[in-house]
Design goal:
Elements (H helix, E strand, L loop, with lengths): L12 E2 L5 H9 L3 E5 L5 E3 L6 H10 L3 H5 L1 H24 L9 H12 L3 H18 E3 L1 H12 L3 E6 L5 H10 L7 E4 H4 L8 H8 L7 E5 L2 H10 L3 E4 L18 H20 L8 H28 L3 E5 L4 H10 L8 E5 L3 H4 L9 H8 L5 E2 H7 L8 H6 L8 E2 L4 H9 L1 H23 L4 E9 L2 H10 L7 E9 L12 E7 L5 H19 L7 E6 L5 E5 L3 H28 L14 H8 L3 H8 L2 E5 L2 E7 L4 H4 L12 H7 L10 H7 L1 H8 L6 H9 L8 H10 L6
Parallel strand pairs: 1-8, 2-5, 2-7, 5-6, 7-8, 9-10, 9-13, 13-14, 14-15
Antiparallel strand pairs: 3-4, 11-12, 16-17, 18-19
Helix pairs in contact: 2-4, 2-6, 4-5, 5-6, 13-14, 13-23, 13-24, 14-23, 22-24, 25-27, 28-29
């Protein structure tokens, strides 16, 4: 599928209106084929040419120049634009017949505007040229036409309205695979331009042909097409793609420069991918991985790399299963992962560590093992906690359960009462499992004193379990967690002397963001996207050599889900390849922004229909430590065989709404109301309110609470809507 869009222009035909056979005839009918260079033969992996000046600033932020000339470096993008305008105006004021300027003219003007010395000016100029070289790539559509003209043995000339010297333009063309042309004309060296219409007769005369013998191909409707036509040439228009609408970030407080620059980088890299014919038929999972999860994981890796460079831990522990992809990629953001920086992939899970870490009886921590959207039997909960249910029939009845098969809803106070009666048995079960878990962690940490954990995060259960398991003999070990996201209730799990840091979410974010984004399926979608190609960790056993080794679950369902995740990660890895190639010289600290997650936030809160279908049938485990109970992300309601309120159990509400066409459903929904307002759900469960509908009628509608699928979607879309 071509990414050159239809463009209706009276001055020239577009390439889409000219099939290759007709273009071949037109090329054959002309003596000279002329190509514009920038934005025609050569493209940049950034949204707009001026965005490259932001990249120059980012590359210099961590240099001595930023220390000695902070105001000039900080203002460079604006200074660079002003300097070019100033230099062109100076040409006009000086009585020149044209406004064409050289790069030296521009930097002379910048030196005057900023009061910059010669050394700084030279550094800025040199960095701009280096950025240009890193960002350019060939336009595959124009390259096809170029190769066609070469095959027809035509005289090929390249014409550019550009301030760069011909020697530098030649370097860029060579990097993009263009050779064999007959001449290159750069406006700043020939004092003629396409925009003024003076370049075309000049080129024709230099090659001894009439302008009618010149076919010019370019992206600018005025300079490349209308002025070429007025000069008597034939013109073919290669219109640039329309700028994509960037998702708005729901966070406040970040400088606009960083979010704008990140948005420009992402747009440029994605546009490059979409123009590549090799990827037009790419796997849908890879495309989603490239466009959505590639930027997201790039942002996390940049943040993580910046922290590793600053903290220099004794050891990095990448926690299974969600840090598998991150471990493979992090070295690229550090240059290479230094040999002296010890790191290990550690097989842990909430299910494998929480029970062994119980040295006291914290019901809130245990709740993670018996919570969930779907009801489970008393027997299933007890097995999950390491107890044999049949031994505790009478104890269950004493907690007001009819039998062991009774299904228990999330938050049922009877379950807490039952666990209170069984706390001695639970502590004994924990003690049996503790030694192997403790030895495994001790093996992983070794002699390190400053340990950095890397994981997906959320509330810090695993980190808290590790600290408790290691015990007093590891009292001198400092464990700091660096996570994709940390929620506000992670504060309950943070131990003295240890810390938890989150990138995408952290504890001082607005509660409504955490609620609407993560309760709507963002957690489960991201956990799927980062899934490793192996099962969850069930526990530990002693290996043949005396070391403790993990017991990893082998599940066909989990393996099937992981295979989809690997396809998604292939696309994300391709995005990272493109980023490192073009932007790898920028220090990680300079690109630390949550704006990398913009399209992920958009996906979670306002997905396209094809995205809702692609991801909707995936499932996710409902309870920690038990992958046998799985719930869908966003099922097709017509195939689910249940009423809409029953579908409250699906994870991804926005995906469910879009997939099932509920955007306009303004009817009150029990599912929506209880999903958003856990306080109301608790009130219904303990009898303070008879139903969600009762609360809605009595209070909720007057408090402007969300009570319908359509209202949920409106509120979600507010997170990424452009500012008014």
């Amino acid at each position: 599928m071509s990414n050159i869009q239809e463009h209706v222009a009276p001055v020239a035909e577009t390439i889409e209106a000219s099939p290759e056979a007709e273009l071949r005839e037109r090329i054959a009918a002309h003596d000279v084929v002329s190509f514009d260079v920038f934005d025609t033969l050569i493209l940049r992996a950034i949204a707009a040419p001026a965005d490259a000046f932001n990249v120059v600033k980012l590359r210099l932020l961590a240099t001595d120049a930023a220390l000695h000339h902070p105001h000039v470096i900080d203002a460079f993008p604006d200074l660079r634009v002003r300097a070019e305008r100033f230099a062109r105006d100076a040409k006009e004021r000086g009585g020149e017949a044209h406004r064409e300027v050289t790069l030296d003219d521009i930097y002379d003007a910048l030196a005057s505007l900023a009061g910059a010395d010669a050394a700084l000016v030279e550094l800025l100029k040199r960095t701009e040229l280096a950025v240009e070289r890193d960002l350019v790539y060939p336009n595959p559509v124009a390259k096809r036409l170029y190769d066609l003209a070469r095959a027809e043995r035509k005289t090929i000339v390249l014409c550019s309205d550009m301030y760069l010297p011909a020697s530098e333009v030649t370097t860029l063309l060579r990097r993009c695979g263009y050779d064999g042309y007959d001449a290159l004309y750069v406006s700043c060296e020939h004092a003629r331009s396409k925009h003024a219409g003076t370049m075309f007769p000049y080129v024709a005369g230099r090659h001894g042909v009439a302008t009618a013998g010149v076919l010019h191909i370019g992206d600018n409707a005025y300079g490349d097409c209308e002025m070429a036509r007025q000069a008597g040439c034939t013109a073919v228009h290669l219109p640039p793609p329309a700028a994509g609408q960037r998702a708005r970030m729901p966070w406040r407080g970040e400088q606009q420069f960083y979010s704008d620059t990140v948005g420009a980088i992402v747009e440029g890299i994605v546009r490059k991918r979409e123009r590549d014919p090799a990827h037009t038929t790419a796997d849908a999972w890879e495309r989603l991985g490239f466009r959505v999860f590639g930027p997201l994981l790039t942002g996390f890796l940049l943040w993580l790399a910046a922290n590793v460079r600053e903290r220099r831990p004794d050891k990095l522990l990448f926690l299974a299963r969600d840090a598998h992809f991150v471990r493979r990629q992090l070295g690229r953001f550090l240059g290479v992962l230094p040999d002296e920086l010890d790191n290990e992939y550690v097989y842990v899970s909430r299910g494998s560590l929480l029970m062994p870490s119980l040295t006291d009886f914290p019901l809130p921590r245990l709740a993670h093992l018996f919570s969930g959207k779907r009801k489970s039997s008393v027997a299933a909960h007890l097995r999950r906690l390491g107890l044999e249910p049949e031994l505790y029939v009478n104890v269950a009845r004493s907690a007001d359960f009819d039998d062991l098969d009774e299904l228990v809803p999330n938050g049922d106070p009877r379950m807490r009462a039952l666990l209170g009666k069984l706390h001695h048995e639970l502590l004994r079960a924990s003690a049996k499992r503790r030694p192997l878990a403790r030895r495994y962690l001790a093996q992983s940490i070794g002699d390190a004193k400053r340990v950095m954990l890397v994981d997906i995060g959320w509330v810090g259960n695993i980190q808290a379990s590790m600290v408790r398991l290691l015990g007093p003999e590891h009292a001198g070990v400092q464990i700091d967690g660096y996570y994709v996201g940390v929620f506000r209730n992670a504060a309950e799990n943070q131990s003295a002397g240890h810390s938890m840091q989150g990138w995408l979410t952290h504890r001082d974010d607005a509660p409504d963001f955490e609620q609407l984004l993560w309760w709507s399926g963002g957690v489960e979608i991201l956990e799927f996207a980062m899934t490793a190609p192996h099962g969850t960790t069930l526990g530990y056993e002693e290996g043949p050599g005396g070391d403790v080794v993990p017991i990893v679950e082998a599940s066909e369902v989990e393996n099937g889900i992981a295979r989809f995740a690997q396809r998604l990660q292939k696309g994300a890895g391709d995005f990272i390849d493109e980023f490192v190639s073009a932007y790898g010289s920028i220090p990680p600290e300079a690109l630390n922004s949550r704006a990398w997650a913009a399209d992920f936030v958009r996906l979670v809160t306002d997905p396209a229909p094809d995205e809702a279908v692609l991801l909707g049938d995936l499932t996710h485990g409902d309870v920690a430590g038990d992958t046998s109970i799985r719930l869908p992300f966003a099922p097709d309601a017509s195939e689910f065989g249940a009423g809409l309120d029953t579908l409250a159990a699906c994870y991804w509400k926005a995906g469910f709404i879009v997939r099932n066409g509920l955007d306009d459903d303004e009817r009150f929904s029990e599912a929506v109301y209880l999903a958003i307002y856990p306080d109301i759900q608790a009130a219904v469960e303990d009898g303070r309110v008879s139903s969600a509908h009762e609360h809605w009628m009595r209070n909720g509608r007057f408090e402007e609470r969300i009570g319908s699928w359509a209202a949920w979607m409106r509120k979600s879309r507010e997170l990424t809507a452009p500012p008014r």
